[in-house]
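The instructor's notes for this session suggest beginning with a concrete chain rather than abstract definitions. Hand out the sequence below and ask the class to guess, before any prediction is shown, which regions might be ordered.
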Amino acid sequence: MRAVYLVPLAVILALNVVVVLALGAVGGRALVAEWKALAEVAVLRDLLTAKERLSAERGPTNGALGADQADIAAKRQTLRDARLASDAAVEQAIIAVGKNTTSSESGAPIAALRSLQDQTQQARARVDELLAEPKDGRSFARIDTAVHGMTALMPPLSPIIAHVAANIVAADPTLAPLIGVARNAADLRDQAGRIGSMFTASIVTQLPFTVSQIGEIRRNQGWVDELHHGLAEGAAIIADTAASEERDRSAIDRMLATMERRYFGEAQALLDDVIRVGLDNGGFGLTAAQFAGAYVPAMGTIIDVRDAALNEAQRAARINIGRRQAQFALAASIGLLSFAIVAWAVLALRRCVIDPLLALASQVRRLAAGDRHAPIGTATQNGEIAVLATAIEDLRRSALKLSEIDAREAAVQARRSDILREIEGPLARLQAGAASLCERAQASVDRLLVSAAALSQLGPDGSVHAVQLTGAADCARAEHQSMVRSRQSLLEAIERVRDMSEAGDLTTDNSAALRGHALVLLEIVAMFSRAVGRMNLPAMAAISAVVSDQHRLDAAPLTRTMADETATNAEALGRDVGQLHGAMRDVAAILEQLDRSRLADANLNLEIPRSMRNAEMIAMADSECPSDDPAMLTAA
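After discussion, reveal the predicted structure:
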C-alpha cells in the first residue's frame, strides 16, 4: 500500500528532473541561436562586400569607357584591380555561405553565386570589346548597353542576402534594426552607383539625356530617397533600442552624419549639376573619369554606415551570447537547487504526512463499512492531520442525525415536486395566448391595410384618411414584429421553466433560478401589454378621425364598419393580454406555494435566500395590467 503513495512522489521527482532538463534545453537552444546569429552576420558582411565590390567596379569601367586610347593603359590597370577585388569578394562570399549550413540549404545560394560569376565575365567581355575600339567608335547605344550589363549583376544577390538576413532575425530578433540599416545602406550605395553609371554614355558622347535615360534616372532617384528615408527610420529605432539597453551608438551616428554631409550634400549637388546639363544641351565639360573621381568617394560614406551597423550587430550578438551563457548557468543552478529541495520535501512529506494519513485511512474505512461505534484516533504529531481526525470523529457522531435530516429533506422535496407539476397548465396557457395574440395582431394589420385601400377609392378626402390608416398599419406591423420576437423569447423562457420543473431539482440555487425565469416571463408579458397599447392607440386615432370627418358622411356605413372592426379587434387583443397576465399570476402563485412549503419545515434549518418573493411578482403583474376588463386594455 505504501508503494501506491511513493509512486506519485517518485513521479514528482522525475517531473522536476524533466523541468530542469527542459529549462536547460531552452537555454541551450537560445545560446545556439545567438551563435548562429553571430555567424550569419559574418556571412552577410561577406555578401554585402561582394555586392559593394561589384557595384564599385562600375566606376573604373565607366572611366575606361570614356578614356582615349592614349589614356586607356592606366585606366585598364585600375579596372583590372577593381575586377580582381570583385572576384575575390564573390569567392569569399561563396566560401562563407558554404561553411554556414543554414545559409546553404540545398546548395541554391552557392549555385546562384557561381552563376553570378559567369554573368560577370559576360558583362566584362562586352566592356572589353568597346575598350578595344577607338573612343569615337564607341556609340551611345553600345556604351549604354555595356553599362546596363554591369548594373544587371546586382539582382541575383538580393535573394541570397534576404535569406541570410532572415536567418539572422529568426535567430535573434533584436538585431533586426541593425541588419535593416546595413541592408538599406548597401542598397543605397548600389542605387547611388546606378545613377552615376546612367550618366556614362551621355558624358562619353557629350550628348543630352534621352527620354529613357531621364525616366530611369528619376526612378533611381526615387529609390534613393526611399532608402534614405528607411535609413533614417532604422537609425531612430536603433536609437530607441540603444537608449533602453544603455548601448553606445556613436559610431553609427558619426557615419550617418558624414554620409549626410558628403553624399546627400556634396555628391547630390554634383548630380544636380550633371542632370541639369544633361537635360539641356549635353555639354558636360568633364569626362567620365573626372565625374567618377568626384562622385565615388562620397558613396564610400554610405559603406561606412553599413560597416558601422554590421559592427554593432556583431557586438550586440556577442553581448547577447554572454547574457545567454549567464542565464543558462543561472537556470542550471536553480534547477539543481530545486531538485535538492523537492527531494528533501518528498522525504519529509512521507514521514510527516503519508504515514499518519495511512493510519487515519484505515480507521475511516471501518467507519465507511458501518462501524460507527469505533472512535477515531486523534493523537498525532501532525497538527493538520489531528484536526482532520477530529473532524471525522465529529462526522461519525453526527451520522445518525444527518440520516434523519436527509429523510425529512427528501419528503419536503417530494411535496414541492408535486406542487411544481401544477405549473404546466399556466405555461400552456401562456404559450397558446402568445400564439393567439400574434395571429390577432397580424389580422389587425391586414384589416387596417384593407380599410386604407377602401378609403383611398373615395377621393382626395378619403386618401388623406387612407394615409393615416396606412401609418397606423405600419405602426401595428412594427409592434407585430416585436410581438413575434417577444413570443420567441417567451417560448424559450417557458422551455427553461419546463426543464427545471421536470428535473425536480429544487435546491436553493435552482429555486432562485426558477424564480428568475418566472420574472423573465413576467417581463415578456409586460412587453406584450405595451405592444398592444402602442398598436391600438394609432389605429383607434385614425379610425376616429375618419368617423368624425363631416365631409365623408356619404361613406358613413363604410367608416362605421371599419370603426366597429377596429374596436372589436382592440378588445380581443386586450382580452388576450389579460389571459396572459392571468396565466402569469397562476405561475407566481405556484412559486409562492413552493416557498411556503420550504419554510414550513423549520427543523431542516435550510437557509434558502429569497432575493425576490413571488408575492412581489404578483403585485408587479397587477401593476402592469390593473384589470382584465377588455375595455380598459383597449383604452391603454
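Then share the key points. The chain has two domains: 2-206+216-337, 412-635. The chain is about 85% helix and 0% strand.
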